[in-house]
Write a structure and sequence with these properties.
alpha/beta; STAS_dom_sf; 3 helices; globular
Length: 131
């Protein structure tokens, strides 16, 4: 797993993740996400999961805990992922009221801002990714 942590001009933490999030990487993943939320003046972190090849249940638990941590600080956690990315399948198991998830069509994009929750409310992921 490779993780890059940056901050945009508005203070939102941007976390780019690549590789596998599994038992061997969950602790590092969680520590990085908590650091991102804590370092952001607005306690908002956007996590780009486009390059995540595998997202285990422990990774989902880290996302839920970080979402709760950000909420306690008055912030939030937002996940962004292309519809064709492998991680999108695992995100369907996030509970209602979990982190905001934005599923975008495949293609180039820049993720450096927190976006509003998608239709269907926080944690909503479509039943099937678009073709």
């Amino acid at each position: 797993m490779a993780v890059t942590l940056t901050q945009d001009a508005s203070g939102v933490a941007v976390v780019d993740v690549a590789g596998e999030i599994d038992l061997s990487t969950c602790a590092e993943f969680g520590a990085t996400l908590h650091r991102a939320v804590d370092a952001s003046p607005c306690h908002v972190a956007v996590v780009d999961l486009d390059l995540v090849e595998f997202l285990a249940a422990c990774g989902l638990a880290v996302l839920i805990e970080t979402h709760r941590h950000a909420g306690r600080l008055g912030g939030r956690l937002q996940l962004v992922v292309h519809a064709a990315a492998p991680a999108v399948r695992s995100l369907r198991f996030l509970p209602p009221g979990g982190p905001d998830v934005e599923v975008t069509p495949a293609g180039p994009r820049v993720v450096h801002e927190a976006r509003p929750a998608p239709p269907g409310g926080p944690g909503h992921v479509p039943e099937r990714p678009p073709p």
